[in-house]
Design the sequence.
């Protein structure tokens, strides 16, 4: 009963898979190296991974070039979709990963980096994210999502602390629930429209004039919940602080950037057409979620005692802030989203790297978590450069101009204003003010308090050349962001305009 | 070099601050004074090459920054900003020269030099975003100065200062973005150029909303009642240098912004909000003067007096005529000089006794006669004695507002009474009577370092009180242009009536 | 001539700055001599200017621009005309005398140099005040004399009473100055200029209401400086300053500035109906009011101060009735004899070691002959006995009142003249006659330095002969001021009036002598007279200072304190902190919903799902009923409501969940 | 009674809700994993049914993918569970509260 399938290789356009394949190949290579000779130093794997990521990035950029010339590219039975969003997000994903992977080269030895599997998993995860963003097929999104997530759970657990296992279990369990929700949501859309491709779903729904709006809404609800989890929207955010706290600072920083951007792209593909075609309900709900996520997580971040946990809540808030772009839905807003995220990745990477640098092997007496505020008290007196760097990242996160994130914030608020969401813009602005408090708190500890005995000599214990380099890159990116904004805007706008969603 | 003088003025201190990290900490102060002096002379040079007959903004520099979004590096000065810039450089120099702080001096000096960059930047900016950047950035060094060198409540004070002003300015940012968006809707491109904005002719209801948004940012900075409560804490806890810069320059950002943004961009809204704002200004004047009278701490007296004087400045600005606006801009400078000097003076006694409670003193006039004299001169300047710098500004501001409302001016004029009450009372408590405390009997009179900072201020306070012309003239020129612009743009009848038509009156004279 | 103008004006300033150079160093006699010398120079220049002005010319210079913005143009302009030159003469003469006198008086004072600096600065301010050619220039001097008055009243700053009095004087003057400023504002906005010539030339073009208001505000300013009721209390308290200061500032010059203003602004006041009568009535009231307080006072300087106040009342009567030249004439004559009286009192104080109560003196004529003669003659002049200066000026005012048919004012003034004579000679009698009560207090009085007495001599001469200048003075000033000969129509009436007045005054003097010249005891406040209500009322200055203190000062103090503690800290500031606190507290209370329990975390997800689902179902039902897509109109107001609502909902949801969580936790127990 | 798509969908939903309830109620980690499997399999039923009734194979494809993913999920999950059990000797959810706030 099945028809024989006749497909020409050319029409498959296998090349659309190239970036992901490079990442997978990298992972396999690492595994093979390990097969041939074990107990190699981690720096080898770091560099191999870096090389493959470089290739990956090259492939992505190449597609970007092609895209700008010829418009969106499809391949593999229309499963793969290389459009502006895909390119942009892949660039952020790969570039972010490239900045992350050298963080493994710490001066202290950490359990996970001794396993070559760690790096292999890392590359698999990247491939997963790349799949997720480079398609509008719900199945492939699901597969990419799960590939990446399962790898990520493992990476967290590999940190080999009791807390990291707990974090992994929590993340995993909730992730499983989210996967179920996603599957159910996809199933509903499939049931209504008979398709799993977002484009087609959109067309069919639009043609049907949303007659079965009730079911559409239920589908949206499940999708919202699933992506709410991924993007840590309140009330699906509960995993975030625990997982960040449990995983190593480097990985936490990574999680605050890369998986989120993948999530955003999918959410954008999925929700933007719904918002645009006038599903008012979704607008309202998104509005609520954005406001609640921003505000609530900010408020919770206020009362944190651990810097990493504070940063976890703060990244929830940032995600909520960016989520507004999907609500607004204009080209400017989507451009703003990528701009914001690009700038945010630099700053946040810097901030988490600073935490990573100050990571101790063993907690001192009375220390309840890895990075309590007290640990940073009086840092400017003992380590002025480190304090200035950390202060810089905090200021940027708080949105103090002219540091990186300010431009993102400004552009986002600007896009809200331009679409008439004045109140939303005000809420976004006020939230920045609330957020400033907890970032300031760290600055105050670092610059205005006296050092607390016991913590001396605990900073920079983990510093190595590569970590310093990464922090330096992040700092430069943060300080001189103003000069990067215009080129970024130009390119992002062009890419967003060539997107299909 | 001449055409880049403003960029040099803005970035020279910052560059010097970076290099300052290398300077050995024992020479830090000398380095700071040198840099600040160079900067000050550069700003004097700016004055010299400034063409008082020229119209509009001078020394404009334009470099695209984020052209996609209409943001450019755009700076320029006119008579309104010129002297505030000079004041800023002057105070940085004086402030550093008279530093008596010993804890981590080098950090302090580097911070001050960064602060100088932001201050000059704010007043030179002609692009709203550049303005905003410097505006916000100025909070950071100030936060550090208050928080790291301040008194026991310094952390509370610095956070309050930062968050309060930050919140206000975020609302202002929304306003700015909306303004740029309106420009986009109107002209097809985003623009943050203040000059472009001034040329826009907005409907009255837009003006009102935007005026409101900007108002929060400015009013908190000024600070206007009821947003003023961060100020006493900030002043109370800040080290001397912090208070000096805060009072002399940073507060002026708010009032300057009213002149630069609110008036020319929203003339109708300015007229509509004139009376509510005048009420706030009057409350500022009278209420804070009374609160100042109740203070026990001399620094708080000066802090509240700052608020009170800022009220007069606000009133002058919203006189919306040449006399009032010119007067209030002059008063900004005057208040900078006088309150800066008063804070320096409070610092002198604090260095000696480590207390600022007036009850701890008494009879200082006999122990420290020179100190008492300088304090007396500055106090008299503060209460608006004619032939001191403050009088010119206060007189013109009140004179200007009298045109708008007689009764309001009469009430606001009580400034000269209530101001005298708290100042004289404080002076009496500090300097008159007999020395009762043992610690006060052998206090050293003011020393050379301190005099170095104070003497120029005394000279300035009197010189500009007697001969304000060199400053008044350029201000007057720019303000006239401003008023002409406002009158042209005014849409409502009320606004056309309230804002004088200079072109017409000039014709009448001829 | 301009050079003389500048010399006259700036010589005192140079003297002041010169003395200021030595301000903090110990006494150097040279400062006193230089300052006095420079004042003499100023006096000579003024005299030259006087002779020039007598020739019918005036000098008008514009030194430089002061303020110019918009249409406002205010120069430092100075004018020497018939009015200002009279004032200049008065000021320079009296101040030269006082300066020389002070060299002796302040001989032993630590603040000798400082004193001269202040005193010369005062003279400079006074010169600015009288010579300015515009209202704002006058205001400079106006405030300048206020400042110097503050400095000099509080000269002995270690004395609480002195500094209190200084502040009182300053603040009270400030109240009046505000009115004056408002008057200036009105002039500017109505006439576009503050120059005297422009203002006076155009004042008639204004509506009467506006002129009236201008007149009222300017007059309030004058009332402050000249200590008219109700702003009079500071003058008596100002006696805390050194006595030369009282002589110069609080008798001869500064306090007359108000009169000068009214005289100067006569074109304005001439335009206002009834304003003159009001001023005259107030003047008459103050004359009587002040004289009554002088009757029972037991402080030598205060008695003279009240007398000054009373005489200022006379001047205002004259000015109010349009006899501006008479007012100015009395101002001049009064300056001489009152300064003399004060300086004499200074000698007495010196001799008595700063004792001020005349009841503790007595019989001083034996040891202080020179002072005795001078004070007696000054009192005679004050009482208005022919041929002394007071007769010509004061009786003239009585005539003015009579001629203008203001008989009530006339009677009041006449009665006051008697009182004046009485309290003046009560003072003289108590100090110089009778028993030597001071011996009870172990004081050994001695006469002042000879040069001080010599310095006073010019004043004595002028107090005696000033009346002789009346004719030439009249010629001089009436070229600027409205002229007006005030002669009673019938010669008979004139003589009856004059002689009658003289007799009444003489009777009062005789009564005073009879009662007090043989006084022997120091009253202790127990006598029937001192217990009487009237006495107490007068001795306590009609309880007005008490009333001010209780009603204004205390209220202000309490209100200030309350504003700070209750409003500023507890409402305005607390609101700000409250908002921050609510946000923070919300965080503290709700962050525990993140209790780390995986089951709860999963439940939250499911709850979120359910809530979304409920919304979805609700919306679908709604949509079904509407049979169409529900379009929300996106308007700002709607959005605003929505936004606020959302925040509220968010917060309340957080709170509710927190409570739910805590209930569940406690409910579970262990 | 003819079995229609609706029946399958209702069944699927019921199973899904059972899974959700399981997720909320189970304190044992292993049983929790079962519940997540129920969720996915509930979806599988629906997908297969829709696929059948629509005559479209995408649904079945999706179901296969879900099965594969569920398998790997279980693998990872059990791995984590074993490590956790080794470290603590328990697989009770309520003990996993070292991070909070």
Sequence:
């Amino acid at each position: 009963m099945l028809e024989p399938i006749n497909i020409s290789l050319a029409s498959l356009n296998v090349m659309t898979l190239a970036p992901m394949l490079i990442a997978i190949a990298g992972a396999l290579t690492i595994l093979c190296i390990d097969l041939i000779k074990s107990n190699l130093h981690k720096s080898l794997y770091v560099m191999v991974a870096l090389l493959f990521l470089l290739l990956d990035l090259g492939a992505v950029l190449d597609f970007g070039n092609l895209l700008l010339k010829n418009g969106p590219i499809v391949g593999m039975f229309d499963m793969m979709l290389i459009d502006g969003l895909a390119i942009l997000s892949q660039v952020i994903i790969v570039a972010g990963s490239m900045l992350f992977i050298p963080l493994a080269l710490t001066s202290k030895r950490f359990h996970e980096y001794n396993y070559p599997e760690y790096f292999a998993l890392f590359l698999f995860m990247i491939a997963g994210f790349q799949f997720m963003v480079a398609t509008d097929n719900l199945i492939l999104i699901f597969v990419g999502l799960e590939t990446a997530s399962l790898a990520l759970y493992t990476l967290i657990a590999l940190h080999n602390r009791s807390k990291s296992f707990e974090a992994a279990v929590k993340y995993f369990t909730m992730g499983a629930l989210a996967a179920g929700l996603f599957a159910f949501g996809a199933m509903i859309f499939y049931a209504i429209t008979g398709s799993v491709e977002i484009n087609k779903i959109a067309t069919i729904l639009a043609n049907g004039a949303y007659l079965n709006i009730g079911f559409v809404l239920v589908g949206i609800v499940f999708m919202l919940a699933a992506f709410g989890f991924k993007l840590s929207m309140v009330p699906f955010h509960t995993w975030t602080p625990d997982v960040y706290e449990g995983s190593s600072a480097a990985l936490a920083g990574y999680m605050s950037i890369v998986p989120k951007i993948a999530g955003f792209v999918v959410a954008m593909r999925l929700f933007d057409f719904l918002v645009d075609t006038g599903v008012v309900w979704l607008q309202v709900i998104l509005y609520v979620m954005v406001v609640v996520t921003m505000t609530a997580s900010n408020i919770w971040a206020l009362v944190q005692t651990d810097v990493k946990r504070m940063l976890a809540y703060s990244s929830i808030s940032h995600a909520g802030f960016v989520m507004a772009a999907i609500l607004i839905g204009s080209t400017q807003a989507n451009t703003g989203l990528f701009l914001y995220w690009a700038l945010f990745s630099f700053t946040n990477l810097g901030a988490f790297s600073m935490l990573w640098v100050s990571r101790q092997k063993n907690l001192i007496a009375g220390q309840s978590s890895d990075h309590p505020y007290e640990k940073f008290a009086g840092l400017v007196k003992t380590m002025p450069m480190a304090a200035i760097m950390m202060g810089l990242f905090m200021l940027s996160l708080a949105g103090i101009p002219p540091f990186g994130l300010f431009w993102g914030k400004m552009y986002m608020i600007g896009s809200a204003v331009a679409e008439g969401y004045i109140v939303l813009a005000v809420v976004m602005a006020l939230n920045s003010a609330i957020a400033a408090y907890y970032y300031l708190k760290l600055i105050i500890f670092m610059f205005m308090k006296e050092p607390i005995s016991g913590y001396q000599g605990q900073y920079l214990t983990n510093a190595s050349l590569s970590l310093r380099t990464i922090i330096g890159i992040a700092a430069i990116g943060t300080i001189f962001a103003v000069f990067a904004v215009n080129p970024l805007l130009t390119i992002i706008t062009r890419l967003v305009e060539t997107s299909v969603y | 070099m001449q055409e880049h003088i403003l960029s040099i003025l803005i970035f020279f201190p910052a560059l010097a601050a970076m290099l300052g990290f290398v300077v050995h900490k024992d020479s830090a102060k000398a380095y700071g004074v040198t840099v600040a002096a160079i900067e000050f002379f550069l700003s004097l040079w700016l004055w010299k090459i400034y063409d008082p007959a020229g119209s509009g903004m001078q020394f404009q520099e334009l470099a695209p920054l984020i052209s996609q979004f209409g943001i450019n590096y755009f700076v320029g000065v006119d008579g309104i900003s010129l002297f505030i810039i000079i004041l800023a450089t002057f105070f940085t120099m004086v402030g550093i020269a008279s530093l008596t702080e010993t804890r981590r001096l080098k950090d302090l000096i580097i911070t001050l030099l960064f602060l100088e960059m932001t201050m000059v930047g704010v007043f030179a900016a002609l692009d709203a975003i550049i303005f905003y950047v410097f505006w916000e950035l100025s909070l950071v060094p100030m936060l550090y100065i208050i928080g790291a060198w301040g008194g026991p409540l310094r952390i509370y004070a610095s956070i309050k200062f930062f968050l309060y002003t930050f919140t206000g300015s975020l609302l202002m940012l929304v306003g700015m973005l909306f303004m740029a968006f309106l420009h986009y809707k109107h002209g097809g491109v985003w623009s943050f150029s203040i000059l472009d904005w001034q040329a826009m002719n907005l409907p009255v209801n837009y003006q009102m909303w935007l005026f409101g948004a900007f108002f929060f940012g400015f009013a908190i900075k000024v600070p206007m009642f009821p947003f003023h409560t961060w100020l006493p804490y900030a002043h109370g806890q800040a080290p001397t240098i912090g208070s000096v810069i805060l009072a002399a320059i940073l507060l002026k950002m708010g009032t300057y912004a009213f002149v630069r943004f609110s008036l020319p961009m929203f003339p109708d809204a300015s007229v509509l909000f004139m009376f509510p704002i005048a009420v706030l200004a009057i409350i500022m004047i009278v209420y804070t003067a009374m609160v100042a009278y109740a203070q026990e701490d001399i620094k708080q007296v000066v802090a509240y007096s700052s608020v009170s004087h800022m009220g007069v400045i606000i009133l002058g600005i919203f006189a919306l005529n040449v006399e009032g606006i010119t007067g209030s801009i002059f008063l900004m400078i005057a208040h900078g000089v006088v309150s800066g000097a008063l804070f320096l003076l409070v610092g002198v006694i604090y260095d000696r006794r480590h207390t600022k409670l007036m009850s701890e003193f008494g009879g200082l006039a006999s122990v420290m006669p020179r100190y008492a004299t300088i304090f007396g001169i500055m106090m008299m300047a503060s209460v608006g004695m004619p032939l001191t710098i403050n009088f010119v500004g206060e007189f013109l501001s009140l004179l200007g507002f009298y045109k708008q409302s007689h009764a309001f001016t009469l009430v606001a004029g009580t400034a000269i009474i209530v101001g005298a009450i708290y100042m004289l009372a404080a002076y009496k408590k500090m300097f008159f009577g007999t020395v009762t405390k043992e610690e006060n009997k052998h206090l050293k009179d003011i020393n050379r370092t301190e005099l170095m900072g104070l003497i120029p201020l005394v000279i300035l306070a009197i010189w500009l009180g007697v001969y304000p012309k060199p400053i008044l003239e350029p201000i007057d020129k720019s303000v006239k242009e401003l008023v002409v612009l406002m009158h042209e743009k005014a849409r409502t009848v009320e606004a056309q009536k309230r804002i004088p038509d200079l072109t017409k009156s000039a014709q009448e004279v001829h | 001539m301009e050079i003389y103008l500048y010399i006259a004006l700036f010589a005192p300033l140079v003297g002041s700055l010169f003395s200021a150079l030595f301000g903090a160093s110990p006494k150097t006699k040279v400062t006193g001599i230089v300052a006095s010398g420079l004042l003499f120079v100023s006096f000579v220049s003024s005299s030259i200017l006087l002779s020039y002005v007598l020739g019918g010319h005036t000098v008008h210079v514009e030194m430089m621009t002061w303020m110019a913005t918009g249409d406002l143009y205010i120069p430092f302009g100075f004018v020497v005309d018939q009015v200002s030159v009279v004032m200049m003469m008065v000021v320079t003469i009296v101040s030269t005398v006082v300066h020389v006198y002070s060299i002796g008086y302040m001989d032993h004072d630590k603040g000798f140099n400082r004193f001269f600096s202040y005193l010369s600065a005062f003279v400079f301010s006074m010169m600015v005040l009288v010579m300015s050619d515009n209202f704002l220039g006058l205001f400079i001097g106006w405030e300048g004399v206020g400042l110097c008055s503050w400095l000099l009243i509080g000269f002995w700053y270690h004395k609480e009473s002195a500094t209190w009095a200084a502040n009182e004087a300053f603040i009270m003057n400030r109240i009046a100055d505000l009115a004056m400023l408002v008057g200036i504002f009105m002039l500017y906005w109505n006439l576009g200029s503050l120059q005297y010539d422009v203002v006076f030339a155009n004042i008639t073009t204004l509506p009467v209401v506006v002129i009236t208001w201008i007149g009222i505000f300017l007059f309030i300013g004058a009332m402050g400086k000249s200590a008219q009721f109700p702003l009079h209390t500071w003058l008596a308290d100002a006696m805390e300053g050194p006595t030369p200061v009282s002589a110069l500032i609080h008798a001869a010059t500064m306090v007359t500035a108000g009169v000068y203003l009214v005289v100067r602004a006569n074109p304005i006041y001439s335009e206002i109906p009834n304003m003159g009568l009001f001023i005259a009535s107030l003047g008459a009231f103050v004359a009587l009011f002040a004289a009554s307080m002088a009757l029972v006072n037991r402080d030598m300087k205060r008695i003279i101060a009240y007398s000054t106040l009373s005489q200022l009342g006379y001047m205002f009567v004259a000015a109010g009735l349009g006899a501006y030249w008479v007012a100015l004439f009395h101002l001049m004559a009064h300056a001489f004899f009152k300064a003399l009286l004060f300086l004499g009192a200074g000698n007495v104080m010196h001799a008595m070691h700063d004792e001020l109560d005349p009841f503790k003196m007595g019989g001083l004529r034996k040891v202080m002959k020179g002072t005795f003669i001078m004070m007696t003659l000054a009192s005679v002049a004050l009482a208005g006995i022919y041929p002394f200066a007071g007769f010509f000026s004061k009786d003239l005012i009585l005539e003015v009142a009579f001629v203008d048919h203001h008989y009530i004012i006339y009677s009041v003034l006449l009665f006051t003249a008697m009182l004046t004579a009485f309290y003046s000679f009560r003072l003289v009698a108590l100090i110089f006659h009778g028993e030597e009560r001071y011996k009870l207090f172990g004081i050994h009085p001695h006469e002042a330095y000879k040069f001080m007495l010599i310095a006073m001599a010019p004043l004595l001469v002028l107090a005696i002969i000033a009346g002789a200048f009346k004719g030439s003075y009249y010629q001089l000033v009436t070229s600027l001021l409205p002229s007006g000969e005030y002669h009673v129509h019938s010669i008979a009436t004139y003589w009856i009036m004059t002689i009658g007045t003289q007799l009444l005054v003489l009777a009062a003097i005789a009564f005073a002598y009879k009662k007090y010249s043989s006084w022997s005891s120091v009253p202790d406040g127990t006598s029937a007279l001192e217990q009487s209500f009237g006495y107490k009322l007068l001795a306590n200055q009609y309880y007005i200072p008490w009333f001010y203190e209780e009603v204004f000062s205390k209220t202000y103090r309490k209100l200030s304190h309350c504003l700070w503690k209750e409003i500023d800290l507890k409402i305005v500031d607390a609101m700000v902190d409250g908002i921050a606190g609510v946000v923070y507290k919300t965080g503290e209370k709700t962050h525990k919903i993140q209790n780390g329990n995986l089951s709860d975390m999963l439940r939250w997800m499911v709850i979120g799902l359910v809530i979304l689902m409920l919304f979805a179902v609700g919306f679908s039902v709604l949509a079904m009923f509407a049979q169409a897509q529900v379009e929300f109109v996106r308007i700002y107001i709607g959005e605003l409501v929505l936004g606020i609502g959302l925040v509220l909902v968010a917060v309340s949801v957080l709170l509710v969940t927190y409570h739910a969580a805590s209930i569940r936790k406690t409910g579970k127990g262990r | 009674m003819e079995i229609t798509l609706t029946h399958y969908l209702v069944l699927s939903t019921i199973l899904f809700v059972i899974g959700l309830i399981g997720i909320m109620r189970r304190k044992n980690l292993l049983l929790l994993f079962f519940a997540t499997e129920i969720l996915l399999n509930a979806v599988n039923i629906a997908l297969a049914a829709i696929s059948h009734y629509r005559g479209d194979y995408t649904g079945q494809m999706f179901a296969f993918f879900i099965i594969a993913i569920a398998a790997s999920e279980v693998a990872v999950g059990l791995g984590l569970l074993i490590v956790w059990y080794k470290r603590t000797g328990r697989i009770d959810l309520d003990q996993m509260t070292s991070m909070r706030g």
